[in-house]
Amino acid sequence: MAIAYPQVNHEFGSPFLHEKMFSTHLLDANNRCANTAPDCRFNNATHSGIHLPSPTVCNCCDYCLPLYRRDQDCSIGGPGDGITIGRCGHGLTCDQETRKCVRMKTKCHDLQDDYDARFSRGEVGAFEKRPYCDEKGKFAAFHCVPTQTCFCQSEDGDRLFGEVLYTGPLQNMPCGCSRFHEKIKKLIDRKVQFPVAGPKCTSDGNFNPVQCVGRSCFCVNRLTGESVGSERINLDEEPISELSCYNEELDLFPEIFEGDPPYNYTTPCFINIENKKRIIQESEEAGFIMDYFNSFDDMECLPDGTSSRIGRTPNGSKICINERSARIGDYEAHPYTPEFESMDCKCALTSSLMSSQASQPVCCKNGNFRPIQCYRGVCRCVDSDGRQVGKEESNVRSLQCFTQDWQHC
Predict the structure, then answer these.
(1) Buried b or exposed e, range 34-68, using 16+ CB within 10 angstroms
(2) pLDDT by residue (tens digit) across 202-227?
(3) Which domain range does residue 378 map to?
(4) First to last CA, the chain
(5) Is 90 within the bounds of a domain?
(6) Which whole-number Å values give the CA distances from 215 to 5, 200, 236, 301, in the listed order?
(7) What is the pLDDT of residues 274-326, one digit of tens each?
(8) Spatial distance between the Cα atoms of 17 and 57, rounded to a whole number of angstroms
């Protein structure tokens, strides 16, 4: 069998692997690395690019991939298309017919277009924000409601776990952990027998600095979730507090790890799931059929390891609760009522987070956002997440969401 070896090139003073076909365009006449395209050096309205390793085995030179602007020529690849030295920029794609860079057709871009059209007609509300789309045309990781809070959202614009107080237009909220959990839900079949635990998150949708796999715990970067350093502890021998990145303020149930070894670092919700798994496994080993009791739908834990923010009273009513299962306000919905079925407690949770603020949103009796919110003499319609819909009005009867009993819900 013939074996092809990479060509060894000695022209540069020392031998190294060199792919002649792909490297020559990166070198000048004196076999030195040529200057990269200006797109990576300037990054302004007319130039933009991405620094990449050179497309060679040895990565011997810097390489710049230019990003083409809207309406510039592009190539979709394939036979007869020639060599493309760049690609369409963020939010753009190469049109198959015109071979020009055009704006991607996405839900986020459509909502941007709708916002821009209404803005030109003077129909945008004071608390409305133009949707921010990422380089793929998907929704940004978070959305803010001015004067209230910011919360995590998926690439499709659906609200996710994670909410913090609004602090200003330059606020950033990566929500990496929250989005990771959302991907787990999409990728893992719901028919899997037992729930699949993802990384533990904090209330802002970031990664908890302490993560555990089995009985081994370690530190991670809060934004990326990547392991940091080589420090590890074994819960069979050491408490979680021995880990340098452990922060008691982020531990909702510090009392669980107290006591003698073996130690624990978990939550009541996770404990309940593990107990049910153990019962099912032991019963199956004993020969019992457990299909009827296999569902964990009513035991799903939130990304921070806590239970749902909706609790139950002894009489079956729903109430709003916080991360420590303490009741929030007097919000309640009784069984067999529309308020019971629609209850989400989003307004109750936002109001609780804003407890120190002078102005808070008005909630319905079941903790949902009241469809009409008023602020400084004007009123506006809002959706179930508290986001303004349409322009505000000084006369509440002019609002599209107005009903005769708008103050009572």
Answers:
(1) eebbebbeeeeeebbbbeeebebeeebbebbbbbb
(2) 999 999 999 999 899 999 999 999 99
(3) 370-409
(4) 80
(5) no
(6) 47, 15, 7, 19
(7) 888 888 888 888 888 766 566 666 678 999 999 899 999 999 999 999 998 89
(8) 7
